[in-house]
User: What shape does this take?
Amino acid sequence: MFRGIVSFSLLLIALVFSASSMSVLAQSNLTAKATVPAPPATSLVESDRTRDGLVGPVRRVRTEIAKLSSETGKRLEGKRTVLEIVAYDIKGAKVENQYFPIAGANVTGKEVYKYDDKGNISEMTLTNEEGSLLSKEVYKYEFDFVGNWNKMSTSVAVIEAGKMSFEPTEVTYRAIMYYFDEKMLRMAQPASSPASQPAQTVASMPVPSSNNVANLSAELKNVAVKPAVNPLPDNSSIAVQKSAGLPGSVMTSDKLNNVGAVEVGNARPNSNAPALVVKLDAEPPPPAPRPMLKPVSGGVLNGIALNLPSPRYPENAKRLRVSGLVTVEVVIDETGKVISAQAIGGPEALRDVAVQAALHARFSPTKLSGQPVKVAGLIHYKFALQ
Assistant: This one.
C-alpha cells in the first residue's frame, strides 16, 4: 500500500515537471519568434538624375543642336550651338543647370506629345487655340553603351505631291560623362572572346568496358614499337613532361584494372523534360515619360508668377528720360526656377536690370501628362517716368 502511494506521488511529480518544462520551452520559442527583427523597409529614392530620364551614374550632360540645310540635293549640317549644360553630384542631385535659348526655336501653341516604349518623345503635334493643326514633328534616337540617347534627329511634316513626308530639320547631340565605378568599368571594357577550341572534357572521352579489357591488352602486346625515322642527335636534350595520371604507352590488363572506374555525368539536358515557362501575374507597367529636351511654350508669364520682383530703374535712364516696355524671354525648369533670361525687345538702357529681375522670378512647376517640363515664355516690364 505504501509503495503504491509513493509510486503515484512520483508519477504525479514527473507529470508536473514535464508540463512546466513544456510551457517554458513554448514560451522561449514564442519569445525567440517575437524578438526576430523585421526586415527594413526599402524605399526607392528618386533623384534629379532619374527624373531627367538618365540611366547610370551620369555626371554631366552637354547638349548641342545643329540645323540641317539642303544644297544641291545633299543634306548639310550647320554649326553646333550649345543648348544646355547640366551637372549632377554622385548621388544624382542637380548641381548645375544652364540653358541657352535659341532665337525663333519656340513656336507658340498647344503642344501634344507621344512617347516611345523607352519613354522618349517620339512625336509632337502643335495646334493653335482653335484646335487647328499648325505643325508636326517626329524624333528618332541613337543610344550609347549605357542606354542614354546621344543623338536625336528631328523631322518636320511636309506635304509634297499631295503626300505627307518628313523632312529632317535639325540634329541634337548629347555628350554624356559618367562617374567611374565598377559597373561602368565592366560596361566600358569589351567582352573577352571565348576560346576558339575548348578543351576536351573527361565526359567526352570514351571509357573502356570491362568486357574488352582482355582484348585490348592482347592487341597492345602485339604492337611493335618502331624507332623514330629521324632520331635526335646525342647532344640534343628535350625535356618531356609525363602526366602522372595517364598510363604508359604499353598497357596490360593489370594496369587497366588499376586505373579505376570513371564516372561520366550526362551534361546534356533531358529532352523529355518540360520547358520552363515563366508567367507574369500582370503586365509590366509602361515606362514613365521622360522629360522633354525642348521647353513648352507658355506665352506671357506675368500673370502666373508666384514671385515677380520689380526691376530697379537705372539712374542714368531716369536722367535721360528713357522709358518703355522691355520684353524678356525666360526658360523655367521643372521646379519653377528661371534658368535662362534674355532681353529681346525694349530700350537698351533698361534691358540689363530687366534681365536681372527676371532671373529672380519664381513660378509653380508645370506638368504635362503628369510629367514636370520646362517652360519658355515672356515677361514684360514696363518702365514709366513719374
